[in-house]
TrEMBL record:
<dbReference type="Pfam" id="PF00652">
    <property type="entry name" value="Ricin_B_lectin"/>
</dbReference>
<feature type="domain" description="Ricin B lectin">
    <location>
        <begin position="13"/>
        <end position="136"/>
    </location>
</feature>
<feature type="domain" description="Ricin B lectin">
    <location>
        <begin position="140"/>
        <end position="261"/>
    </location>
</feature>
<protein>
    <recommendedName>
        <fullName>Ricin B lectin domain-containing protein</fullName>
    </recommendedName>
</protein>
<dbReference type="InterPro" id="IPR035992">
    <property type="entry name" value="Ricin_B-like_lectins"/>
</dbReference>
<dbReference type="InterPro" id="IPR000772">
    <property type="entry name" value="Ricin_B_lectin"/>
</dbReference>
Length: 263
């Protein structure tokens, strides 16, 4: 249906948040070609929602999806028509937290970053916080939907206790299947508890403890555990109902790929 297609399309987008203290998120200045990318406080605007296309390397903005982020000859990051050049191809590294351009530069925030409308630029890698970013979903409920089976992550039987197992199940719309992404945690709407990777790589519901085994990144395709850099997967070639997802080394197979579909 049209509404289902729109919802799935929106689920691709994320917020790109600077890890500089007290800074903001990336925003397209306006919808015109050549509009500069700036830093701003999050206002739930389409100008602040971006999509990393892993096939092309392009970063699209929900405000003007036919354009892509381009690193121009002056070092500014701006909107431009796609032309298949290296200065338009990007990769987010969840370990270094850098947004790396294929031309060898990384995305950076100017020294004035703590004020709104600071420019986003390309620079040589320095490992400074001005070059580190987090990809976040807008804080609204979503379903973690397997691209293999179209089943969603669920906690069965209304369980809310620590250690409750997560399974894959048909989407019902219940709050036990809905999650929000807050400060690196994937939090269940129903219980307020978070997704945790355990020592045996199983995934359960747990009270928030602050460890990296409870923190996750999402790059638009893979849900990556901060603790070991491995990804969430459905360990079954058919993606059957009731199967329990776990964490495993990334292989690129479809059973490790997810949509975050807004509720």
């Amino acid at each position: 249906s049209s509404s289902s297609s729109t919802s799935q399309s929106k689920s691709k987008y994320c917020i790109i948040r600077s890890l500089l203290e007290n800074s903001g998120v990336l925003q397209v200045g306006d919808s015109a070609k050549g509009a500069e990318i700036v830093l701003a406080q999050y206002m739930k605007s389409p100008a602040q929602h971006f999509y990393f296309d892993s096939n092309t390397g392009y970063i699209h903005c929900e405000l003007k999806p036919e354009y892509v982020l381009d690193l121009d000859s002056t070092g500014k990051v701006l909107l431009w028509k796609p032309n298949n050049q290296d200065n338009q191809k990007w990769h987010y590294d969840p370990n270094s937290r850098e947004i790396q351009c294929k031309n060898g530069m990384v995305m950076d925030i100017r020294d004035t970053a703590k004020t709104n409308a600071s420019n986003v630029v390309g620079a040589q890698r320095t490992n400074s916080d001005s070059q580190k970013f987090a990809l976040e979903k807008p804080v609204r409920p979503f379903f973690m939907k397997s691209r293999l089976s179209n089943l969603v992550a669920d906690v069965p039987g209304g369980n809310e206790h620590d250690g409750a197992h997560v399974i894959m199940f048909n989407q019902q719309g219940d709050s036990s299947q809905q999650w929000v992404y807050k400060n690196g945690y994937i939090e269940q709407v129903k219980s307020g508890k978070v997704l945790q990777m355990n020592d045996d790589k199983s995934v359960t519901l747990q009270s928030k403890m602050g460890g990296n085994n409870q923190r996750w990144n999402w790059d638009g395709t893979y849900i990556i555990n901060v603790g070991n850099g491995q990804v969430l997967e459905v360990p079954d070639e058919n993606g059957s109902q009731y199967i329990r997802p776990k964490v495993a080394a990334k292989t690129g197979e479809k059973n490790q790929q997810f949509w975050w579909k807004y509720a």
